[in-house]
Amino acid sequence: MKKYLLYFIVSIIQFGLFVLLMISVYQKIKNFETFMDTLVGTNLFYVNSVKYFAIAVIVAELIVAFSLLAYRKIGFYMTILLFAVYTLYIIILELYYFYPSCGCGGIMAQLPFKEHLTLNLIYIILAAISILFVKKSTYEKNIVIV
After folding, report:
1. How many independent structural domains does the chain possess?
2. Are 117 and 92 in contact (CB under 8 A)?
3. Per residue in 126-135, pLDDT tens?
4. What is the extent of the structural domain holding 110?
């Protein structure tokens, strides 16, 4: 019974992270010009390269989201890496520039710095905990159809 409960919990976390990433991708694509304007507004990127960077972010999120479904453990590792990069990005915005918006889209874009940082850390912790409960085989396919 314990094994099935852990599998259920990991599946909920996996699906939740997948949905979160897909909503983020949807928001960025739907409001692509706003997303690019937000990136330009941070003064971290050259105006000429923002479009390519924005596309790269969307593609990265899609890859991570679908890797969560196809290769669960690898997907969780990629999620940790992605959210670690996002966390570093918002810390840089807060420390060296300003924190008007990170460009995340949806509710995340409206959050103040501390709440945004807290949520990112929670996502990282959830993915890390999930890794502990996934079978040791890194390359095992764990497709979950919900």
Report:
1. 1
2. no
3. 999 999 888 6
4. 2-133
The pLDDT value given to residue 134? 80
What's the predicted TM-score (pTM) here? 0.83
Q: Mean of the pLDDT values across residues 66-92?
A: 92
d(C-alpha 116, C-alpha 20), whole Å:
14
**124: Cβ contacts below 8 Å, ≥ 6 apart:** 79, 80, 83, 84, 87
Is residue 28 in some structural domain?
yes
Report residue 1's pLDDT band, with 50, 70 and 90 as the boundaries: low
